[in-house]
């Protein structure tokens, strides 16, 4: 029997008409296997923390436990307003796959309830579970791009003609993954606008006061999430100055897309997953306060208009969300006033379109810099790779280590670490690799491409598994390590390592070079963040403060805020490491019984941990330290570790976490 909180989707399928609900399943573990009942009831040490002191707390927790139990069939854990969830809905609808939906209330933080974290340790929607479906493996899948790739692999084409959604040709597939990385980079700048202009409005319309909203939050909710939810309600999650720079970043990204769509209906030569990846995010831009005006972006406007006529695109958006987006796009003042009236707040809506003129002034400068970069790189042999190396980034190390393991030819090009500041999600497409005349950006697609075109003989086995489920698990670990960095590590690493490196790079003798970055096209969106890090190390009353304090002193965090943030992020990192340590019990590798790119990704990311002040203790994390040491016995892994220790050695202390 389907619980009352589950809504069945409509539609039939020629392919999956044989779906049968036969056996009663145990609850799934994070890797899709069945857990014994006693394990699901314990759930580590977290279950003891769920008893809240608020009225109905125990009842609410029981409801969420039931809500996120495994269900038979194909289940999408969804949020109607989530662009990521919408991608999965589009594929499910287009392929006519019957599924049921469990709606996750993001406003109440249900996505970070321990019961949901058993499904997705990153605490995000969507999640897709498959149980008791003939011909398909039982599994728990998270991250929208991973889910759609898995579905396209295991369920044959239905409506896409001769082409699969995900191309099989390595270079065509790499293009798809690069656009998926581009979209991830866009979220660095898009998300603050979504929280300010969409989520905040919804919160204020739903809750008459800040206290009413806070009363719905669990007592064990991590302080980071609690603070973000309440700041969003108050309209203080980002300042107007910060939103100005985020708008610049968004429109710079959109200019890249506008150029790529010139004279084209699709980004590849045919409809692909690229369109399904980009459409939900682009469709939200107007309602988020970042309008895509046809007079400014004619190619993108035409692109979105054509895609709207696809049945799955229209059907994937619930009517309520369609009305809200239309209202926020056309007459946003109405919902804003309604939310402010109900909550008693006076929060205004920010419009990113005010920065368009300044972005277009530097468009030609971007093209000039692209030509200069090609000149600096010089000629790259057809079989050779050129990896852009940033001393504070794990992405280039991951590619280098993969190339070393595959025995491929490559060289590195040293780049300034400043370019990576403020671009956590997939490096926003700034990380770059050349293979002959082919240019690859981002990180996720690069690794798969490198593995596909190197070491095809048996002496150099593929590190990307061919089995669809094993591949999905590897990709989920890659997503896990990137989310670990973006959500938990980046704050401490930037303030302990990057801020000091900025001061080593710029002092009183060349301070003008630092300030000149604000007129450099590469740093239009991130200069504010760069100066915030730089000012975090400037002593009040010093000569440097006299130079910079008037303009940038307001960026400095107070001592109480800084200490609170350090404690909070240390706790979040500890939780991540505890999860990883439990997972690695009795395991030599993250996926299967062989080395995969999942091990490479997580290993390289953890090498930067000491730079945050966190050190892996054998006493605290016995399984994790054994795994790290086992990998370090491999020559190439040891070389990469020594490279990080050399580059960042002065930031590594001997303290244990």
TrEMBL record:
**Boundaries of each GST N-terminal domain copy?**
72-159
GO cellular component, alphabetical, reads: cytoplasm
Per the UniProt entry, what are the Gene Ontology biological process annotations, in alphabetical order? Answer: glutathione metabolic process
State which residue ranges cross the membrane.
Answer: none
Show the SUPFAM superfamilies listed in the entry.
Answer: GST C-terminal domain-like, Thioredoxin-like
Extract the InterPro entries matched here.
Glutathione-S-Trfase_C-like, Glutathione-S-Trfase_C_sf, Glutathione_S-Trfase, Glutathione_S-Trfase_N, GST_C, Thioredoxin-like_sf
* Domain of life according to the entry: Eukaryota
Q: Where is the GST C-terminal domain?
A: 169-329, 504-648
Task: Identify the PROSITE patterns for this entry.
Answer: GST_CTER, GST_NTER
GO MF annotations for this entry?
glutathione binding; glutathione transferase activity
Report the sequence similarity comment from the record.
Belongs to the GST superfamily.
What is the name of this protein? Uncharacterized protein LOC118419832 isoform X1
Species of origin? Branchiostoma floridae
């Amino acid at each position: 029997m389907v619980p009352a909180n589950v809504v069945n989707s409509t539609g039939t399928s020629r392919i999956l008409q044989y779906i049968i609900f036969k056996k009663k399943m145990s609850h799934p573990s994070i890797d899709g296997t069945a857990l014994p009942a006693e394990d699901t009831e314990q759930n580590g040490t977290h279950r003891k923390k769920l008893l809240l002191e608020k009225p109905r707390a125990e009842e609410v927790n029981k409801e969420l436990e039931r809500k996120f139990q495994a269900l038979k069939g194909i289940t999408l854990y969804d949020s109607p307003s989530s662009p990521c969830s919408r991608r999965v809905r589009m594929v499910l609808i287009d392929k006519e796959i019957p599924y049921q939906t469990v709606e996750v209330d993001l406003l109440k933080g249900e996505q970070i309830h321990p019961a949901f974290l058993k499904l997705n340790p990153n605490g995000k929607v969507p999640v897709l579970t498959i149980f008791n479906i003939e011909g398909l493996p039982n599994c728990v899948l998270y991250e929208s791009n991973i889910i759609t790739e898995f579905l396209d692999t295991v369920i044959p084409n239905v409506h896409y003609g001769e082409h699969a959604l995900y191309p099989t040709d390595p270079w065509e597939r790499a293009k798809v993954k690069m656009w998926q990385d581009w979209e991830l980079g866009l979220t660095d700048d898009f998300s603050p606008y979504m929280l300010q202009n969409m989520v905040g409005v919804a919160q204020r319309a739903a809750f008459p006061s800040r206290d009413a909203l806070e009363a719905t939050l669990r007592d064990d909710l991590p302080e980071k999430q609690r603070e973000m939810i309440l700041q969003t309600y108050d309209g203080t999650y980002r300042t107007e100055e910060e939103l100005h720079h985020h708008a610049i970043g968004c429109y710079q990204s959109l200019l890249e897309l506008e150029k790529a769509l010139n004279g084209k209906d699709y980004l590849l030569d045919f409809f692909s997953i690229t369109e399904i990846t980009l459409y939900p995010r682009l469709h939200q831009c107007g309602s988020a306060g970042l309008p895509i005006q046809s007079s400014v972006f004619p190619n993108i406007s035409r692109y979105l208009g054509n895609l709207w006529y696809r049945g799955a695109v229209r059907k994937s958006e619930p009517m309520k969300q369609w009305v809200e987006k239309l209202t926020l796009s056309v007459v946003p003042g109405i919902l804003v006033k309604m939310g402010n009236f109900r909550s008693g707040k006076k929060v205004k809506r920010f419009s990113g379109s005010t920065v368009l003129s300044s972005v277009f002034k530097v468009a030609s400068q971007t093209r000039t810099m692209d030509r200069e970069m090609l000149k600096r790189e010089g000629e790259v042999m057809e079989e050779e790779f050129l990896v852009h190396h940033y001393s504070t980034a794990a992405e280039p190390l991951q590619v280098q280590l993969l190339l070393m393991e595959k025995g491929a030819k490559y060289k590195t090009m040293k780049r300034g670490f400043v370019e990576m500041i403020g671009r956590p999600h997939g490096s926003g497409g700034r990380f770059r690799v050349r293979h002959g005349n082919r240019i690859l950006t981002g990180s996720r697609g690069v690794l798969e491409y490198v593995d596909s075109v190197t070491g095809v003989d048996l002496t150099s086995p593929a590190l990307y598994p061919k089995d669809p489920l094993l591949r999905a698990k590897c990709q989920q670990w890659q997503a896990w390590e990137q989310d670990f960095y973006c959500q938990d590590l980046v704050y401490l690493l930037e303030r302990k390592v990057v801020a000091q490196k900025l001061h080593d790079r710029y002092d009183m003798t060349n301070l003008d070079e630092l300030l000149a970055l604000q007129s450099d096209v590469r740093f239009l969106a991130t200069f504010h963040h760069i100066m915030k890090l730089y000012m975090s190390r400037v002593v009040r009353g010093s000569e440097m403060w006299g130079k910079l304090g008037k303009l940038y002193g307001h960026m400095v965090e107070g001592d109480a805020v800084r200490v609170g943030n350090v404690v909070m992020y240390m706790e979040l990192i500890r939780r991540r490491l505890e999860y990883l340590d439990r997972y690695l019990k009795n395991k030599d590798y993250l996926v299967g019984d062989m080395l995969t790119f999942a091990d490479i990704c997580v290993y390289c990311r953890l090498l930067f941990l000491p730079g945050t002040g966190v050190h892996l203790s054998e006493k605290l994390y016995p399984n994790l330290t054994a795994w790290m040491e086992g990998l370090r016995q491999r020559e190439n892994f040891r070389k990469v570790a020594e490279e990080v220790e050399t580059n960042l050695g002065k930031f590594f202390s001997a303290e244990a976490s």
